[in-house]
Amino acid sequence: MDTKPDIYKVLMTLSALFLLLPKTEAQGSYDSLKLQLPKHYFKTVIVLDAYRKPEQSIPDTTDFLSKKLKSYGVNQFIFSLNTPIATFERPQYDSTQPKKNTHLLLTANYMRLQPIFDGIQTHSLVKTGIGIRLVVNSGKKGIWFIDTAPFVTRDATYANSPAEWRMANTIVYSHNKSEKFNWRIGITKSFMWGNRNYLPFIGLRFGRLNKTHLSIQIPRHISLNVPVNDKFTMSFYTKPQGGMWNFSNRDSVYYLGNASTFHFTRYEINTGFRADVRVNDFFNFYVALGFSTKNNITFYSEKENSKNKNVPYKKFFYEQDMPATGFFNLGLVFKFGKTKSYIGDKNIYDAIDLNNTVGGGDDNISNGNTQIPIAPKKATDLNLKSVQDLIDYNDF
């Protein structure tokens, strides 16, 4: 009896078992891990920002209120948070297709402003808000950015000080002609010019976001950003800063009536140098200093300007332009969570930049585009972490 065919059958069966067992065990191990893939392209980002401008004497010595106030300085603190709450993405049939996605983010902001007047008590003016941002990536060259940011402002110095509700909005269309050139157009309702203004938004960018580039975003800022390496970025910038707050009349500043509060507004133009340091994947910080110019403070009567809530305030009882002075700004940036892979995706980079610069609200602060990886100077500078970022989680 010839046993060779039986031996062949046994050997073939054993070979098949050895081939299948590792695959079965590997698949079982993979399933047992229950890996949760990242759902979003945005991290949760928290910014703590401190701003200080020294006191200076009010130059007008003839006005009654100027004599009462004596001097003016600024002490400001901002807490800002934005976090993704939903990401909707169309399925890709192959990796060569552009990504089409929609992002919904929740924002929260808190500001405490202390205008320092030597002649009256220091007031703590507080602004608190929660908003929604919608970013729509067409997958081609265009991105829509819509930001709705309701907030309330009050004078926290006195517990019974009334609050005022306001709304800031921004709608911008951003077009990526290429990685090196971008233009934006839109409209924004902002209080950072010291009034409730509807302003056109016009933006231009020359250069790649992860390399040296010039960003002109009117009315937000103009900045030249120069990455030195993957940890350190320098920027030279000019931007407006300001707002509108409820101010208690306990000091009898508004002497023409018996109003309990009035509207305090301020604006200025900051021009200076900023250094951003990326310590690790979770923490950044920045330091900025320079000159504050075009300083203005104005006090508006609430009663006289309450007749039409859709136009800027026009009737004021005190206004003062202040001379230029220096300023100092320090910020801490915390980042949480994992994201989907987007290395080299110019539209996702642009969406991150929109969220960082356009979506700063009236606070007009920036986290330094902390989520955009800086391009290495040389190919040899591409470290292991950079290579790891190039790998899509879906490849596993």
If you average the pLDDT, what whole number results?
A: 84
Question: What's the total helix number?
Answer: 4
Q: Low-confidence stretches at least 5 residues in length (pLDDT < 50)?
A: 17-31, 386-396
The succession of helices and strands, N to C, reads HEHEEEEEEEEEEEEEEHH
The chain-level structural class is: mainly beta
* Gap between N and C termini: 51 Å
Strand order in the sheet with the most strands: 1-2-3-4-5-6-7-8-9-10-11-12-13-15
Query: Looking at the structure, what is the overall shape?
Result: elongated
Structural Rg:
27 Å
Summarize the amount of helix as a percent range: 10-25%
Q: How many beta-strand segments?
A: 15
Question: What proportion of the residues form beta strands (DSSP E)?
Answer: over 45%
